[in-house]
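Here's what a typical entry looks like (ATP phosphoribosyltransferase regulatory subunit):
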Amino acid sequence: MTKRDKQDVGQRLLARFRATGAEEVAPDILLPAESLLDLYGEDLRARAYVTADPIRGEMMLRPDFTVPVVQAHMRTGAEPARYCYLGEIFRKQDMGDTRPETPRDHEYLQCGFELFSRDPAADAEVFALFHEALAPLDLQAETGDMGLLLDAVAGLPLTQARACALSHHIWRPGRFARLLARFSRPAVARAFPDSTAPWAGMRSEDEMIRRIARLQADAAVPPLSPVWTERLERLFALRAPASDALPALVELARDMPAIAPAVDRIHARMDAIAARGIDLGAVIFDASHGRTTLEYYDGFTFTFHADRTLPGRATWPPVASGGRYDALTRVLGRGREIPAVGGIIRPGLVAELEASA
């Protein structure tokens, strides 16, 4: 598969997005590293190409389109607004196919669409747009909602500190599970004997005293009842065709009232998707969908997957993915915010699927 083949597919997808009235944009390839690291954390360094500029400071080869698009929109954009783009992104580590003849794990094309709108039907519009663009490829569509999981954690009978800790790690399932297990058993009190030795380390004496006080206060918190862990695990394990998932979500909401508003939102979204002619029975709803993606998704999430059981496709990433990132607009808008949802397609994978059809 040549670069020209991938570009041709990308241009075709881009034209489809432009036909919706989207403005084509081209964010810089070299971006300031500071804002990206603030959003993603220092872990991004392991996946991105970072360099030092003597004038501009630390810079990063573009690892993502959404952040620079949101930054530009929040500075000068009106609402509602639609944007589309096509270009390369650069990452050291990727879940893509790493065969020598398809080295897309370090540099690959993305074609994307972003919608800034307060219309409640925006999620369904974006999903339907991607569904229609990819329909000839017979992909498996999956959806989820990170807001559902965040509401579930917020509704647990925990101290604010413990709930915040769980929410912070919800995108890291392993760390989340270990933390939940610790909060579900009696805390072990730690002794901090008085000492006349001088304080040492990077933290100040005041910081250490506050840290010790938090640890001592946390040790007195009773463990989370097993019934809540069981309910949370039932929620995280829910995976079914969207038409079947709704009754299960309604039943879970009876035991977890905090998720009821999110269940109502999901119900309305599914109705809106169905109203666009999409069979909900062919769309998978996975309650844990989005837990291993970029942390700026805080609501609706979706992916489109090729059949990974076929030869050579076991390690393929999603052909397309996206979701809602309202909180990101608030962070980058310095207090101003607007609901936003978008997604990307990998033209290289589309080109390979079309060539093998």
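The chain has 13 helices and twelve strands.

More examples are in the samples folder.
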